[in-house]
Design a protein that fits this description.
Largest sheet: 4 strands, mixed
Radius of gyration: 26 Å
Strand content: 5-15%
Number of helices: 24
Helix content: 40-55%
Number of strands: 10
Length: 653
């Protein structure tokens, strides 16, 4: 499909959850208001949730240590069937499904702890469980499905049917307006489900790419475009409007072909493929929500679904710290353990402090999700963005600390008699997290859109070229009233008072810094909107830095609140305060650099260089190489029709 930039933006905007019915710490932070009361005292899980979660973690750890061979999964690029069936017996496929449907009913906090534990044994196994429960059938059905759908699908997913989420297409990534897979209503078809809303089926045609779990899935969540009803079509009178829609599809339906099992630089065991639909009949009763609600369902599912990824990142940080500590004590150079050399020691300090902060962000966002008192859409997005970026940096530093051994595979290390440490594998496995579930660049834009939502709500019509003069006049009045009360609040606050946040002891200066800097961040955003107005959305470099500053401030807040909680609980409080202090000092340096780059950068020059690159002005710079790429189109043909390939879908036995 071909759509204009404006049409693409309208589709994305229509799918946004626009209302803010609950408070949001991160939203307030971007507005320059440091609402510490929303996160402190740190929320606590219920005693029964802790007991149930810890009991499962004990059983899961025993299973992982006895049954999961991460090296074998890496070597064979496949999770053995016996591992998957063992996870089913444990109930691991139903961790987030309620007990009334046969699941374990774990909280988000303990679900994430389980994912971190599993991913430390094998990131591929962690990806399988996460794709199944975080974005696969259980979550959208739980949030948006009818009672009949919950009764039909949740017990199956809890007992062992593997699910997958299918949105991406060969020519559609973060721009769903171009979605080409269609679901055409066919009321004359024979429905396989009684009680179908319209008494008919939808017929699916199209191709989906990068379908994690798709190669082994029993159930699929498929996003497809339903054509709008034509004039006079009785469907219009029944409330059907077409649009991108979500369906639950049986994985063995006639007309479904898994055409390829994809292979990647990391996560080599994941069952990720290309799935073709050719005239696949889906009962109307399997449609999740109304027609046209598919993207909203997907985005809402990701509000908490994104927390699974920072869970694996926090777990990776813990492993990086363990290996760095043990290796840097054992490895001696120039008469001292390498940890005592400042160049290496600073890397270890970064890993330790950042791991503490990542776990603080994860636990805080997860507990807030469990309590459901706050809107955490920005917090979850920040956790995903920050976790994926910082985990990659920690893994890269671990490889550097290990030197040549960091570049060598675990299998090679073991073959020559040394400990088989898969540091290079971790680096490969973590790389996808900066792309999964919204790339870093898309996350910057998504979070930035939410961060400026209050401004666009009151002043958006002022910069909209399609609005009338009357609309702009009304917007000016609304904006004047909002900014008359908002702007004065950015001048001064408790961050300027030496005694503010004194209960945090040595961490109080960091919280005062967060409060002051949040106001500075809001002022910078307001100034940029005043300067660029409608062109603000094109200033992606600026917006990315704004979001990165907010991510650092959120992480600093979470780290301080967690350290104070641990101190009050009597669990390693002094050490936690030291780690939080180290992290905040490191983060403040990054924040100051980001602020400097808001206005002193090469963004304009970069745009000119890019235009010259695309125009072919620098092709002389590409001379003197041999391109080892194979021949073929940049994007594979995804024309609907019957498959001409062997079906590589397999059932786990």
């Amino acid at each position: 499909m071909t759509v204009s930039e404006r049409e693409a933006r309208e589709v994305a905007e229509a799918a946004r959850e626009k209302d803010w019915r609950k408070p949001s710490f991160a939203k307030e932070l971007f507005l320059g208001r440091f609402r510490l009361d929303l996160i402190h005292p740190h929320p606590q899980p219920a005693a029964e949730d802790i007991a149930r979660g810890e009991e499962f973690l004990d059983r899961l750890r025993a299973f992982l240590e006895a049954e999961v061979d991460g090296a074998r999964i890496e070597r064979e690029s496949r999770i053995p069937d016996e591992v998957i069936t063992g996870l089913k017996r444990l109930g691991a496929l139903g961790m987030k499904i309620g007990t009334e449907y046969g699941g374990l009913g774990l909280t988000q906090v303990y679900y994430n702890k389980a994912l971190a534990l599993v991913s430390s044994a094998s990131p591929a196994v962690g990806a399988l469980l996460s794709a199944h429960q975080s974005i696969g059938v259980p979550q959208p059905v739980k949030l948006f499905g009818s009672q009949e759908q919950k009764d039909a699908f949740l017990p199956r997913c809890a007992r062992g049917d593997i699910s997958a989420f299918l949105l991406t297409e060969p020519d559609v990534g973060s721009d769903p307006a171009r979605l080409a897979t269609t679901a055409v209503p066919d009321d004359g078809g024979t429905s396989r489900s009684s009680g179908a809303e319209s008494g008919g089926d939808y017929v699916l045609d199209g191709v989906k790419l990068w379908t994690t779990n798709g190669v082994v899935a029993d159930l699929l969540v498929v996003m497809a475009r339903v054509p709008p009803p034509a004039e006079g079509d009785p469907r219009a009178a029944q409330g059907h409007k077409g649009g991108i829609t979500a369906f639950v599809v049986e994985g063995d339906s006639e007309g479904i072909t898994v055409e390829n099992r994809n292979a990647f630089m990391g996560l080599r065991g994941i069952e990720n493929g290309v799935t073709r639909f050719h005239r696949v009949r889906v009962p109307a009763a399997h449609r999740i929500g109304p027609e046209g609600a598919g993207l909203k369902i997907a985005l809402t599912t990701l509000n908490t679904g994104r927390l699974s990824l920072p869970a694996t990142c926090a777990g990776a940080g813990k492993w990086c710290l363990k290996i760095a500590r043990e290796w840097a004590r054992a490895r001696v150079q120039w008469g001292r353990p390498v940890a005592e050399h400042e160049a290496v020691g600073s890397k270890i300090s970064f890993i330790a402090a950042t791991t503490f902060a990542l776990e603080a962000v994860l636990d805080l966002a997860s507990q807030m999700a469990d309590e459901e008192r706050n809107d955490i859409r920005i917090e979850a997005a920040l956790a995903k963005l920050y976790g994926s970026e910082m985990a990659w940096k920690m893994a890269d530093e671990l490889v550097q600390i290990r030197g040549g051994r960091g570049f060598e595979t675990a299998e090679s290390l073991a073959a020559r008699g040394e400990r088989g440490v898969p540091a290079e594998q971790l680096l490969r496995d973590l790389r996808i997290n900066r792309i999964f579930e919204g790339s870093t660049e898309i996350m910057h834009l998504l979070i930035a859109r939410e961060a400026v939502d209050a401004h666009l709500s009151v002043a958006g019509d002022l910069i909209d070229p399609d609005k009338t003069l009357a609309d702009k006049s009304r917007a000016a009045l609304s904006a004047g009233a909002f900014y008359a009360t908002w702007l004065p609040g950015l001048v001064a606050g408790p961050g300027r008072l030496p005694g503010a946040f004194a209960e945090f002891g040595t961490l109080a200066p960091h919280l005062r810094y967060v409060e002051r800097t949040a106001r500075k961040l809001a002022r910078s955003t307001f100034y940029a909107m005043s300067r660029w107005q409608g062109r603000m959305e094109t200033k992606q470099g600026f917006l990315g830095r704004i979001v990165d500053i907010g991510a650092e401030l959120f992480a600093m807040s979470a780290a301080c609140v967690r350290a104070e909680k641990m101190k009050r609980d009597g669990t390693d409080g002094q050490a936690a305060h030291q780690l939080a202090d180290a992290f905040c000092r490191q983060a403040r340096l990054r924040v100051e650099e980001l602020f400097a780059r808001l206005w002193a950068n090469t963004d304009d020059l970069d745009r000119r260089v890019v235009r010259q690159v695309l125009d072919g002005s620098y092709t002389w710079l590409e001379e003197g190489i041999v391109d080892p790429s194979t021949e073929g189109p940049w994007i594979a043909d995804a024309t609907p029709g019957p498959s001409r390939k062997e079906n590589v879908h397999r059932r786990v036995r």
